[in-house]
Design a protein that fits this description.
NE0471 N-terminal domain-like; three-stranded antiparallel sheet; 3 helices; 32% strand; single chain; alpha+beta; 80 residues
Length: 80
């Protein structure tokens, strides 16, 4: 079981083009996490162009220009 309180890995990049209906997150430790967009309804509702406007905050969080919600690397790791 992975302890989530001490996550020492960050997010390098998000990608929505390689997997239909899914989001890939590339982490600083070399891992790639792929999750269905259905797990993130707010992101799923964004157009492909709006999804490309992602921002990484402090390596641990990400958001989009059209959303006020901030997601964390922990959110992704709990789903994988």
């Amino acid at each position: 079981m992975c302890k989530m309180k001490d996550v020492n890995v960050g997010i390098k990049k998000l990608d929505f083009t390689g997997y239909r209906g899914k989001m890939a997150a590339y982490l600083t430790d070399g891992r790639e996490i792929i999750v269905p967009l259905s797990f993130f309804p707010d992101i799923k509702r964004l157009s492909l162009k709006e999804r490309e406007e992602w921002m990484i905050l402090d390596d641990q969080f990400f958001t989009f220009g059209r959303l006020s919600k901030i997601y964390s690397v922990k959110d992704l790791m709990l789903l994988s």
